[in-house]
Amino acid sequence: MFTGIVQGKATVVQVAPDQDLVRLKVSFPEGKIEDVERGASVALNGVCLTVVGLQGNVVDFDVMQTSLQLTSLGQAKVGDSLNFERAMKGQDEVGGHLLSGHVATMGKVAKVDILGHGRLLTIDVPEALRPYLFSKGYIGVDGASLTIVDLTAEGFTVSLIPETLQLTNFGHAAAGMVVNIEIDSQTRAVVDTVERMLAQRGL
Predict the structure, then answer these.
(1) DSSP 71
(2) What does the pLDDT read at residue 184?
(3) From CA 13, how far away is CA 65, in angstroms rounded?
(4) Which UniProt keywords apply (predicted)?
């Protein structure tokens, strides 16, 4: 599990296709990954991955076809900056909201508005995901726990403070940027339950 509080940006240093998967080599900032072990979970742009190799600050991850197709990691290239968060520990403060690292779909940044030192991102998502969106509800975007400001015809908006822009890849966000979307699990459970009950009653 993850908190949605991004801990920094890591850089892709190698993308190596190997039959039915891709091995990503990712370089982490100094002091952020030294105590990690093989088998540990790390979220990259919101995708939960398993550490399969370690060489100093460079960590190897195997990404299967399903993840490559459903997430933006399928488009990853050398030099890309990825948001990262290590799996939470039992005593960690949950400053955002609980995320599983299981991405539901990809969205696309439609517009970036400057709000003083901050930014307002308009993000479009597939129609099937829109019933789970609520104004002031939680959403995971590239692994960051964000609050939906408002809904749009095609998706939603989120506001980003300077701290978030500095710590994450959102500082370079522009129209057309593809982002990974994870729906809040409690929201999904409530919406699915209500829809199932209404369907059973023929409503």
Answers:
(1) S
(2) 82
(3) 20
(4) Repeat
Structural tokens at position 43: 């979220």
Q: Please give the backbone phi and psi of residue 5, each rounded to the nearest 5 degrees, phi first.
A: -95, 100
Domains in the chain: ranges and CATH: 8-86 (2.40.30.20), 105-186 (2.40.30.20)
Beta bridge partners of 26: 12, 59
Tell me how crowded residue 63 is: count the other CB atoms within 10 A of its CB.
20
Q: How far apart are CA 193 and CA 132, in angstroms?
A: 12
Tens-digit pLDDT profile for the chain (203 aa)?
898 999 999 999 999 998 889 999 999 999 888 889 999 999 999 999 999 999 999 999 999 999 999 999 999 999 999 999 999 876 666 656 788 899 999 999 999 999 999 999 999 999 999 999 999 999 999 999 999 999 999 999 999 999 999 999 999 999 999 999 999 877 777 787 887 888 888 76
Q: Phi and psi dihedrals of 15, rounded to 5? A: -125, 110
CA distances from 72 to 33, 107, 122, 142, 149 (A): 23, 9, 18, 9, 24
> Which pair of tokens denotes residue 50?
């398993």
Rounded Cα distance, 152 and 94, in Å: 28
